[in-house]
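Practice set, problem 2.
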Amino acid sequence: MIHFDVDEFKVMLVTGEYIPNDQETKRSDIYGEVTSNNSGYKTGGLSVKVFVRKWDKGVEITFDGAEWTNSTITASSAIYYKSRGLPIEDDLICCINFGATSSSNGKFAVTESVIRIQN
């Protein structure tokens, strides 16, 4: 069960090698994560805040953005997941494909993402 208002969530980055598949449910199913060897990126990504807003037609879930400073990263998608501690236990939430983007000893940022679930 996922509780967007209290659970811990993270965002990780993947390269263009990764192709989303609706059969993937756990972080351990993901391949092509950005490497962490002196790039300013840490395996598993960064923690993000989540905001839940109910409205008359459903629920809106906003995942905060993330920023890697002083990084050298090339990524094409951000994957948000519920962090339980181990990749085989972490639940995937969504994949945001933003196309190939990179940073070279600078800032790499992912803007906030919104999921709307309508009644």
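Problem 2, part (b): a different protein.
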Amino acid sequence: MRRLVWLPITVGLVGLLLLIGAAVDGGCGVGQDGVRALEAEGYRDITIGDHTWWKCGRDDTFASNFTATNPLGKRVAGAVCCGWTKGCTVRF
């Protein structure tokens, strides 16, 4: 009987760990919010890359590398940092 009690708890914990792992691994990226932030600053030909660890602040929930063409026509690379309540910022 005790095994039946632990089974739903174990399944729930494994599911939670999988969700956390997907978020940490970059499964939850900046997506369209990051693209909109870059477009608002005049960037075009935007490619959002993988998750970045060290380029964003403590308040940022999602952080991804990007490459884009800046308003002067030069190709640049940086990071787009987004938070649940703060929106997105662009960092170089």
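Answer key, part (b): The chain has a mean pLDDT of 83. The radius of gyration is 18 Å.
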